[in-house]
Design brief:
globular; about 40% helix; 2 domains; 4-stranded antiparallel β-sheet; alpha+beta
């Protein structure tokens, strides 16, 4: 009898381990993609845009907005809309001139991330005046994040989109 118990104990442990593995695998299929990782990637894209734009604004690199390089950050429609020459102001700095301080870029806590859509909040001071922009990003056909809209209290890029 003692010998039989010893043989069944490892078998039971193996069965339990297998059941747990199957349950864990099934749960991983039911859970949507890691939203926090997607959020991080969307935030990283907006950070890259602001770094590149700051260099262009300082004159150390060619401009991004209103150029083909904008397509690395924006979808086609938003890239065309974000041209400061057409808008009459810089949509990333929310003004014609800029003296930026206290720049913060993070996932927007006011919007719940959706599958395939992310919201990134950018806050800063321009000549001492507080600004808050919300970037709406969607995944393109290659699953890359692209900015589809910028929203502020006073305007949204999509409202200024040429038809």
């Amino acid at each position: 009898m003692q010998r039989e118990k010893r043989r069944t104990a490892p078998v039971k442990a193996t069965i339990y381990a297998a059941v747990i593995a199957v349950i864990a695998a099934a749960m991983s299929l039911a859970v949507p993609p890691d939203v926090s990782r997607a959020d991080e990637n969307a935030v990283a894209l907006v950070r890259q845009l602001y770094r590149a734009h700051a260099r262009a604004f300082a004159g150390t690199t060619p401009p991004i907005l209103g150029r083909p390089a904008a397509r690395a950050y924006f979808d086609a429609r938003a890239a065309a809309s974000a041209d400061p020459g057409r808008l009459g102001f810089d949509p990333l700095y929310n003004g014609q001139d800029a003296e930026i301080s206290r720049l913060r870029i993070a996932s927007d806590p006011d919007f719940r991330p959706l599958r395939g859509t992310a919201f990134v909040r950018v806050t800063f001071r321009n000549f001492g005046q507080p600004n808050r922009l919300v970037f709406v990003l969607k995944r393109n056909a290659r699953a890359e994040w692209r900015i589809v809209d910028i929203e502020t209290r006073d305007w949204t890029l999509s409202e200024m989109t040429p038809q």
